[in-house]
Amino acid sequence: MASMLVHDAGPQTTVQDLGRRGSLRVGIPPSGPMDREAFLLANRLVGNADDAAGLECTLIGPCIEFADERWVAVTGADMPVTLNGAAMPGWAAIEVEAGDVLKLGAARSGVRGYIAISGGIDTPPALGSRSTYLRGRLGGFEGRVLRKADCLPLGPASGGAPAEVHEEMIPNYTVEPTVRVVLGPQDDRFTKRGIAVLFEAPYEMTQQSDRMGARLRGARIEHTRGHDIISDGVPLGGIQVVGDGQPIVLLADRQSTGGYTKIGAVCSFDIGRVCQVKPGQRLRFRQVSVAGAHEFLRAYRKEVDEAITFPSP
Amino acid sequence: VGNYAEPRFLPCGDLALSVELGDEINRDVNARVLALEYLIQRKGLHGVSETVPSYRSLLVYYDPATVGWDELTRSLRALWREARPEVLPPARTVEIPCCYGGELGFELEAAAKTLGLAAEEVAWLHASADYYVYFVGFTPGLPYMTGMPERLTIPRLDQPRTKTPPGSVSIGGIQCCIYSVESPGGFWVLGRTPLLLYDPGAAEPSLLRPGDHVRFRMIDRAEFDKIAAAVAEGGYAPRIERV
Could you report the predicted ipTM of this complex, rounded to two decimals? Predict the structure, then answer.
């Protein structure tokens, strides 16, 4: 069976696909890529289906040797990419041969990098998905982060072609992003001032952030009465505010339910951008209505669908 | 009692909404939440991708490209009218062997002291009740249960533990839970079950489902070790009955 060999894994490299569905009701999160857009574009660049499994790496990328001909693409965080020591572009399809070594360095900007390989990674699915859920030791490669000398099975490659993401669609992770938020489900548990503060003040990403949640630090968000609720479901992007008034944005590996107030939720199309904010960098929140969010979502999906230039036939 | 006259639909970002059916933790409100979820699954509601029940609300994930807010809330409201506990299929009763006290139930003595009861009495009272699983969540496979005898109502620990071993059978307030993975905890650990509440290698990783009933069976340390060994080899089938 075709495979690729991990020479060096980097601090937290995992196998991810678009995530699992239907298991939140027994407490198992969807997992999947933290930056769905970057992941999706990597797959499309190499001609994979959107749900093919690839790699997510964190802050520093891995070093990988290929055993056969493939197309690969690196997207997401701005990590220097080399093939056998020669610099290669990100956000573009690259052709590799047997024995070629792909190496990703430390992120100059952004946090999560993605590597798609034509044919996809063919680890056994768990509950219908190859995504790694680290805390639950589920899916991916033995339910864990990759290590040196791991050998990852690959699916059959089906051709490929040069392709690249339009330059204007490549995000600039050095700037302070503004991400869109729908208020609810417990916005009525916050004071007017608390809500105003959320949309006025910048919030800083802290070191304590992980695949479960982005812990932010900034101006205190004021409750009307207490921060405890009768436990309910935690949506993607849910902004939980506990007693210290600091927000936590809940992400791909989030707890399925929780007993703390959620003032709002970051929209799906801005989650990826939150996940690329480095500790010490700041971000801002902007309020949108549900109807407004659905308009933005439609426009965003169209933009992503048109982001790649394929060679003319 | 505790049910709203009309469901509340609360936005949860652009891809989900919460359907809140009541304002308190009680079996009837929760049964309606589970009935609503069951009807959504059975009818395959257009555009709904996933549901997450909790005490008194159902989180509904949807794709707005397929179904908009107005259409979805209209359909959910129509299903809610039919969502009575009677529509649910018969509940399961799962028997959970539990070894009380000793090193596995390391807070049984302290809990007994706080409650002014003998340790044996606490264990016996705890094992004699019928528990109801409101929902499974927070960590994979963790059941939120009530049904405890009133005499076991106990304040949570002042100082939460940083680590609780998986399988720890614990009580706090009027609730009982079983830790499914190693995690922090503020409940009193009365005993431990050799069963895996969460088994990532299993086709169905969570032993319990929302709406299940649970009965504990008191076992001694020798039986605990025997069952634990059988579980490790994949050779133990938990006793599950349909009520």
Answer: 0.96
